[in-house]
Amino acid sequence: MHAERPSLSDGRGTHALRVIVGAAIVAERKVLACARAHPPELAGMWEFPGGKVEPGESETGALVRECLEELGVRIAVGDRIGDDIPLGHRRTVLKIFAARLVDAQPRALEHAALRWLAADELDDVPWLPADAPIVAALRAGPWLR
Ligand SMILES: Nc1nc2c([nH]c(=O)n2[C@H]2C[C@H](O)[C@@H](COP(=O)(O)OP(=O)(O)OP(=O)(O)O)O2)c(=O)[nH]1
């Protein structure tokens, strides 16, 4: 017997469910948006900082690690924003969490640029298409009020 990663069966075999986590970091009624530097097909599109949950890691743990790597900040992770978003044709979902800064100010260690956006500025940047429901939830919800 050995421990298995959570998995789903699709009738063609068993595949691990891959989870990408992202942080909607809110401060002073603005949310942090980050411009991707790579790969070329995603460069210039804006996203929430985050990345893949590695084997053995919690979703929250992955988000804290990614924000430290990408922005040089420690965050406190809050509630989910929106629902799971399926990404592409693979068994991958995107999950976004509200978060706040614990100490330092974010620096673009891996991104091309950072911007703090108020509710009425959310459309000022081209978000990755999958982020549209999250951007809509941020605009309608309590986080930026
Ligand atoms: N971090 C993040 N990824 C997003 C968002 N929206 C969205 O479609 N994605 C997609 C883009 C990428 O295909 C994937 C995340 O991959 P990534 O390359 O950032 O993840 P990672 O840092 O763990 O990857 P790696 O370079 O270490 O392999 O999820 C978002 O708001 N934040």
TrEMBL record:
Its EC number is 3.6.1.55. The keyword DNA repair applies. Keywords: DNA damage, DNA repair, DNA replication, Hydrolase, Magnesium, Metal-binding, Mutator protein. The keyword Hydrolase applies. Belongs to the Nudix hydrolase family. It is an enzyme of class 3 (hydrolase). Coiled coil: none annotated. Pfam families: NUDIX. This is 8-oxo-dGTP diphosphatase.
